[in-house]
Design brief:
By secondary structure, the protein is mainly α. Helices cover 64% and strands 0% of the residues.
């Protein structure tokens, strides 16, 4: 009988894997790689995905999308990683879009999230596809759906996600509502009243992009007294977009906040107002003596 392998010995690579590694040196086309992508050994299939990602032959995008439905998690993970890595070079072809949409039915949440990310980046999806993913069981998937909705300026669908049970998703919604093409403060209303301070802080910070009209400026001014520093920092950021007469006195007071991030946000907002209100320049001059080096550095910009 053949001797048993020594304990701890590394098993020899499969013949198929050796053939694949040799083929990889020849910049193979997709047809040459297909047998390896369909090999019974998941290790060979994962290696074939790696070769596909390295050589990027014609048809690589749809082939990688097909690998998202592989039964082996390591193959799916390799395909998802390859698609993310190649998203700037893959052509936005309909066959790739179809494969990515099919992957949204995968049982693997990492696959569903990756499919949404690539659909968004290549502009192969639409608001209907992305909004449907807001009901996904996976938080990571719902966050990817929110980002995708931002890319198509789907404000009503984004606003509906403000009721998501996961804090991380609601924070993403707040940031997304600030990033659409024509942001407005109204859709942020439920998030500004959220029970979670991280969500409220993100919603307040979003007002810097949406605009901070008088009613919202009053809300931000009151939020500077919130127990959570994240809320106070968001409020200071919001006042960047408020009228100077209301914003500057409140921001000057925020320079005495115990939290350096709040003071930093206040300084950055005061910089926005320094050309419109001399009190902003006075407040910034006082902040150059702040105990935090970052706050001092930001305040020093006023004199640059």
């Amino acid at each position: 009988p053949a001797p048993a392998p020594a304990a701890g010995a590394v098993p020899a690579p499969s013949p198929a894997l050796l053939r694949l590694l040799a083929l990889a040196e020849e910049a193979p086309d997709l047809e040459a790689l297909r047998p390896f992508l369909a090999d019974a050994d998941s290790g060979v299939r994962a290696a074939a995905v790696a070769v596909l990602a390295e050589t990027v032959p014609g048809g690589a995008g749809p082939a990688l999308a097909g690998c998202l439905r592989d039964p082996a998690p390591e193959v799916r993970a390799a395909a998802a990683g390859a698609l993310r890595e190649l998203v700037e070079v893959l052509p936005a072809e309909p066959e790739l879009g179809a494969g990515l949409r099919a992957a949204l039915a995968s049982a693997d949440p990492a696959v569903r999230a990756a499919a949404l990310e690539v659909l968004r980046a290549l502009r192969l999806g639409d608001a209907g596809v992305y909004a449907a993913a807001l009901g996904d069981a996976g938080i990571e998937v719902r966050i990817a759906a929110v980002r995708a909705l931002v890319s198509v300026d789907a404000v009503p669908e984004l606003a509906a996600a403000a009721a998501d049970p996961a804090r991380e998703v609601r924070v993403a919604v707040a940031r997304g509502l600030a990033a659409v093409h024509d942001p407005a403060p109204g859709p942020l209303d439920p998030l500004l009243d959220d029970a979670d301070p991280l969500v409220r802080g993100a919603a307040l910070a979003a007002l810097a992009a949406t605009g901070c009209p008088p009613g919202y400026a009053a809300l931000a001014g009151a939020a500077l007294g919130d127990p959570a520093w994240q809320v106070r920092a968001g409020a200071a950021t919001a006042l960047r977009a408020a009228a100077p007469g209301r914003a500057v006195p409140a921001l000057a007071e925020a320079l005495a906040d115990a939290n350096a991030d709040v003071r930093k946000a206040a300084v950055l907002s005061l910089l926005r107002h320094r050309d419109d209100d001399p009190r902003a320049r006075t407040a910034l001059a006082s902040a150059t003596a702040d105990p935090d080096a970052d706050v001092r550095a930001y305040a020093a910009r006023a004199g640059a």
